[in-house]
């Protein structure tokens, strides 16, 4: 197909672009030549639209109810069409299933079912008695919902492996969404491995023959670790839904804006870590020597460097009180806890440091983050439609 773009003529084929100039011929790979302005050109958008509805002539002329009915039919028929595709991939049904629109419908439906399975696994559908029995079993056997989730995870892993094989590792790691998929699937696979270890330990009677309450379990129990990783994988799974926004002309630009704002948030986190580290080290050092052989007078909030980080972080949300930072001692006469008179200047310095920390972290840094995100959003709006059309081209692959 021949396009006229500026003063050049572009011939688009499956893998390469031939770019003709008046004097010479250039042969380049399409990934090196393609750009956002080129893809956003109306002729290119027409070609991409044609590829998107490949094997589905007249789709755009159908009414919405017919489109919904056909989509539902394709989804319901997928368990039957998939084996036919595996047995005869180059037949008529195989060509139909390779259509970008059908691939997108099937992928979206599969991921929607996966999310639905996660919702079932997260809801409190069990009775209280069965829940209590399940909570005391170290290394429980997976139920039917968890087996279905595992089956979907194996399918996602196979899909990612095919993508790496077809696109190459370098092209794969350039896409940030692939990093999200890698983290999500890595968490699920680690969860499966820990659950498998726990089941083996229970089957070999290394846990004992009787169930025990969770209060007696070790903190590093494989079952507890697997449950923690499974909950984190839930979050990544639901965040993966944002990727489907790129095919929508209203939600797609918002996804692009969100992606660029994440860069601003990363910059803010780097600066915030410098600020909170300086104050955490300073406040920890301020109370460091208030300890004796009989008693530790240091406030719990700053007994260790980790406690200092935790206290300053939650202090941003108003979860701490000024009285928690006082140096207190036990009155030997009354036996009650009271502020240490000798530490009055130390407490004053600590309160001043907390005041400065609040001023820098909340008043300065947070408002700076808001200004950065607003500036990025306004900058993106200038060429947002072109960027959206360029990014949405990947859906035709």
Automatic annotation (TrEMBL):
One of its GO terms (biological process) is regulation of cytosolic calcium ion concentration. Its main location: membrane. It is found in: Membrane. GO terms for cellular component: cation channel complex; plasma membrane. It comes from the Eukaryota. Residues 110-381 form the Ion transport domain. InterPro entries: Ion_trans_dom, TRPC_channel. It is a multi-pass membrane protein. This is Ion transport domain-containing protein. Signal peptide: none annotated. The chain crosses the membrane at residues 65-88, 100-121, 141-158, 179-201, 228-247, 268-290, 347-370. Keywords: Ion channel, Ion transport, Membrane, Transmembrane, Transmembrane helix, Transport. The keyword Transport applies. One of its GO terms (molecular function) is inositol 1,4,5 trisphosphate binding.
